[in-house]
Each structure stands twice: as structure tokens, then as C-alpha cells.
Design a protein that fits this description.
Blueprint: E1 4-5, H1 9-20, E2 34-35, H2 39-51, H3 53-66, H4 68-81, H5 83-115, H6 119-138, H7 140-143, H8 156-173, H9 175-188, H10 190-211, H11 222-243, H12 257-282, H13 290-299, E3 314-317, E4 332-335, H14 337-343
Antiparallel strand pairs: 1-2, 3-4
Helix pairs in contact: 5-6
Amino acid sequence: MPELTTISIEAAGSDCAQSGQGSGIKPAAPAVRVYKTSARQRELRKLRHKLHRGRDSAYNKAWSKTHPESRRATHRRWAEKNREHLRKCSREYASRQSTKNRHAELYRIGRAESLGITLDEYLVLKELCTQQAAYRKAHIDWYRPSGNPHHRTPTYGELIERRRIARRKYRLSHSEKHRAGRRRYRAKHRKELNRRRSERAKIRLAEYRETHPLPPRPRLSQEELLTRKHAREAARRASYRLTHPSKATPRKVGATPEEEHSIVLYRAKRRRLKHRRRARAQGSGGSYSKAEWDAICRHFAHHCPACGSPGPLTVDHVIPLVLGGSNSVVNIQPLCKPCNVHKGTSIADYRITRLALPRVSMACTDG
């Protein structure tokens, strides 16, 4: 038996009262019972608490349920008595929780960096994994067909194959619904799908160019470039005439000489009006008539003064209108179309011809 030292409260109080009467001495406080327990007894108490933990817990829960007011009053008295202890525990818990949250945040950041994604993408991925785990737990029979809880968990590849088979069966059994859903998705995400398609095409083109480099392109002379350009223009005009027969020139579909002459006159008039309009818009002024243009062509014997080739001539301004040249007869020279295109907006005077062409008198006035 443990050693027990007990002092009776009543006896101690009466003795103190008798000794303090008439002497003015304040009676001492009542004595406290002091128990000295052995290590063996403490071990037995712990063992009993461990063995009867469930029964004691059930009893405490039942008592708390039937005596809620007493339980709350007891809790308030204990909280008031141990207020400093509760504050200390709250501070320690908050510190541990903040440290735990900080460590969790650092772990999430490290995982996101290791996976090569952002923190938001990692949180979305983690939420998706949590949902998948919950789905697998709710559909354990599908993941373990044998029903045996000790059945081997399928690998990731096996799960992917099962899902692929299940989706294929669903598409075959709900083909119309599947097509309607795909049409709705494409109509709703058309821009996104086009953007992804163009990005994939660019990536494939870049990979193809890396594996199949283009041979170096030969440098062509100016004459070869002009020849190719004239050939492209001729092919384009021929293709346009074939695809637009109603807009073709009557000369190309077998017009009479009188009709061809009228067409040529009409086009010359249109060119004169166009040049006059451009000159008026740019403030250069000047004009010329058909008689003056015919005189210039006769002066060069209907040959191009730049290349000497005969054929249809076009109006060219020695000083282009865009550079401030006038639209008068003194600033006009006849050139064939290839030479006119080749000259462009440069300043070049071919009227002092290198060819020994007959010159006729040109009686014209500046209009």
C-alpha cells in the first residue's frame, strides 16, 4: 500500500482555533492531503486507463450528452483557470501551423519547378489527381474486376487502354450524339482550333526545313529578272482572258480592224485623261492632245527610243509626275511597255536616241 499522510481538516482547525484564542494569532490554513504513490502504482493506473479507454470515452460522451450545461460550466471554469496556458498553446499552434503552411508552399513550388509548370497549373493538376483518386475509390470494382481487395492494381498503361476501349464502345453505341458534340465543340472553339492547327503546321514546316535545307538560290541579273517578270505578266494576262472571256479585248476574240482602231483610240484617250488627272492632283499641270502624241510617235518612226523595238508604244514621262514632272508634251517620250516598267520612277531621257531613226517635223504646241 502506498504511504499515506493525512491530516484531519476538522482537528487541525479546532487546534488552531484554540491556540489562537486570546492571543491575536491568525489561525493557519487547513492542511492538504498528500499522497505518495509508487512507480508500480503509476504503471498500473496507466495500464487500467489504456484497457478501459473505450469504456471511459463512451461514458464521458454519454454524460456530456445528458449534462450539456454542466459540461459547459466545467469547461468555462477550466478555461478561466488555465487562460495563460491556452494562450500559450494557441501561439504554439499558430507558429507550428504557419511553419507547416510555409513548408507546404515551398514543397508545392519545388514540385511545380521540377515538373516545368507554374504553381497555378500544379494546383490544378493536384486537384485533378485528387478527383481521380476519389473516382477510383468510388469505382473500385471497375479498377479491380475480380472483386478481390488484394487484386494487383493496374498500371497506368493498362488504365489508359481500358479507358480507350470504353470510349470507343461509347462512341460506337452513341455515334450521332458523339458527332453532334464534336460539331458543337468545333463551332464554339473554332479560333482556338485554327490557332493550334497553324502552330502545329509552323512546327512541322520548321522541322522539315531543318532536315531538308533549301539549295542556295542563284543570283540573277537585272535583264533575267525583267524577262521573268514579263513572262509572269503575260501568263497572268492569258489566264485572266481564259477565265474572263466576257471581259476580253475584242482584238483577242477576232474583232474587225475598225473595231480594233476604235479600241486603241479609246485606250489612248483614257491614258491621257489619267495622266491629266494625276498631274492635276499633284499640281504639276500641263496636257497633250492625240495629234501631239501621234507626232511624237512618228518622230521616232514608231520605235522605242530605249531598245529600238517596234510595236505598241506607251506614254512615259521623262521626269515622273510623282517627282514633280509636268504632263506637257516636252516631258513625254514614247517607250514600249517593258522599258516603261523597267524605268519606273527614275529620271531617264531616251529622246536623244542611239538609233539612226528618221526624224519627221513635229509641229505641236504645248497644251
